[in-house]
Design a protein that fits this description.
mainly alpha, four-stranded antiparallel beta sheet, two-stranded parallel sheet, 19 helices, 6 strands, Protein SirB1 N-terminal domain-containing protein, F-box-like_dom_sf, SirB1_N
């Protein structure tokens, strides 16, 4: 009878590479004898096991390989196991520390940064390993013998914190970049990631989907206008357009019009992108989150005016055509001007791309919002494109109107409300109204506000004139919040004294 010891090392390696054999099985197999320990000391084996366990990380690792990183996959698997063990230790500690708290603030969870922050000693891929393990815990059936309900409860708290903590770093990095590198699709992806902490959303995937649309436009353009000058452009130039907001269009009016016409055909006729119902009273059920979040819009091919405009603008930019999102109090324009560097231009220089009706190019007089009456601004040609911050704020406003699923209405509504208030505060950290609203929300649900109070003190110190309206308001807010904290601490102390006295009796 043939036993496994009689098999060659090559055949054993093939068996171990099968998807049905997990990482734990390979480790246990290697612990049986020196020969098998040597068999599993094969980085190609661990390379396969890593991608079998985390298939969605292939793109991340391929990017690291392209960047000439020296990756030892066996060490990567060891790091993942270490992350898993550290996470479960933290979840157990959270149960001991926060058993008397219903809601946790960021300051309560700062110690968890060591789980996933590379600058605090964590492995470079720890964030992905930790999030994956949290999602595994949350998806376990309560009837499973491996399910720990306490770990599930605190995993929900920790998941939101880790996602938001990382996104704050990404946002600060994004907003500190030059304006030319602040891409709208990247800002929209941050919003989608913030709103959906329980979903893996990679900006790399959003990039690829937009790249694919741009490539489809090029293929169609070649069939219709094979002599278009875009086909003589270098790969380096296409790369520059992809990663930078361009200051001016690169083509003649005729060539730009051809690109935009083909882009419209590809986006709305071939790929069947469509606009969602407008706001009330056109849509009595209210907006849907999937029509606002860019990952869902690219997947389902349906979106509202902001998300569709971002998709259109992002693809057009990849092809050397500048389009701008222009914000009015009641609506958006996606505008196009053949040449943005002209100082003297007439009324016909700007055109309106009707993003909600097939992407047709219209003049000012054809705009359905202004037809038959004066344009709502003094001059249609004198306006500036919306900034990435303004885009995010508009998306927040739209998401605040979304009704959560009925079966989880109350709980989900509370989570979303807090998340959107925290997102607004991240985008506008010096907005006193945003801080005030978030503080009051925290106080109402007994969440630690010490972090926000500290930020208010920093903001107050930044004012040279302490008698200004803004400074006076901050002082009043601090007095109110600090008084509340003192009263609450006093009441907590009385409660503890009462409990001790009651136990003695």
């Amino acid at each position: 009878m043939t036993t496994i010891t009689s098999l060659s090392n090559e055949l054993i390696d093939i068996i171990l590479q099968q998807e049905s054999i997990g990482i734990k099985d390979v480790v246990n197999f290697g612990s049986t004898c020196k020969r098998f320990l040597a068999v599993i000391d094969d980085d190609l084996l661990w390379h396969r096991k890593l991608f079998q366990r985390w298939p969605y990380l292939k793109k991340m690792y391929h990017k690291r390989i392209q960047d000439k990183e020296d990756i030892i996959f066996k060490e990567e698997v060891k790091a993942s196991i270490k992350c898993r063990n550290n996470l479960r230790c933290h979840l157990t500690q959270m149960s001991d520390t926060f058993f008397n708290k219903n809601e946790l603030a960021d300051v309560d969870l700062v110690h968890c940064d060591t789980l996933f922050c590379p600058n605090m000693g964590a492995h470079i891929m720890s964030y992905y390993f930790v999030i994956d393990e949290i999602l595994n815990i949350l998806n376990m059936s309560p009837l499973s013998s491996e399910c720990n309900l306490t770990h599930q409860y605190y995993s929900k708290k920790l998941l939101t914190y880790i996602q938001q903590r990382r996104l704050r770093d990404l946002w600060h990095e994004f907003i500190s970049c030059p304006k030319e590198q602040q891409l709208l699709e990247q800002a929209a992806t941050i919003v989608a990631q913030w709103y959906q902490p329980d979903k893996f959303i990679f900006y790399l995937d959003v990039e690829i989907l937009l790249d694919n649309i741009a490539q489809q436009v090029l293929e169609n353009l070649k069939n219709i206008h094979c002599n278009h000058p875009i086909f003589s452009i270098s790969a380096e130039q296409f790369s520059f357009w992809k990663y930078n907001n361009i200051k001016d269009n690169q083509w003649s009016r005729k060539d730009e019009k051809q690109i935009l016409d083909v882009l419209r055909i590809v986006l709305f006729d071939q790929l069947n992108f469509s606009s969602s119902p407008g706001p009330y009273p056109f849509n009595i059920l209210g907006p849907k989150a999937e029509h606002i979040l860019i990952d869902s819009v690219l997947e389902n091919k349906a979106g509202n005016v902001i998300s569709l405009a971002i998709v259109f603008q992002s693809v057009a930019r990849r092809l050397g055509v500048r389009c701008d999102l222009v914000c009015f109090p009641t609506h958006f324009f996606l505008s196009w001007k053949p040449k943005f560097d002209k100082k003297n231009y007439g009324d016909d220089e700007y055109y309106y791309i009707d993003i909600l009706h097939g992407g047709f190019i219209r003049s000012k007089n054809e705009c359905p919002r202004t037809r038959g009456r004066r344009c709502p601004i003094e001059s249609f040609n004198e306006h500036h494109e919306i900034t990435s911050i303004e885009v995010v704020l508009r998306m927040i406003n739209s998401l605040q109107l979304v009704n959560p699923p009925y079966q989880h209405h109350e709980t989900r509504a509370l989570q979303v409300r807090r998340a959107l208030m925290e997102l607004r505060y991240m985008v506008e950290p010096n907005n006193i109204d945003a801080i005030d609203n978030l503080c009051r929300h925290y106080l109402h649900y007994h969440i630690n506000i010490s972090g926000l109070v500290a930020e208010l003190h920093k903001l107050l110190n930044s004012y040279s004139d302490k008698t200004s309206v803004e400074a006076t308001r901050i002082i009043e807010m601090l007095q109110a919040f600090e008084s509340y904290i003192k009263v609450r601490n006093y009441n907590n102390l009385l409660s503890k004294v009462y409990d001790i006295h009651h136990l003695k009796i």
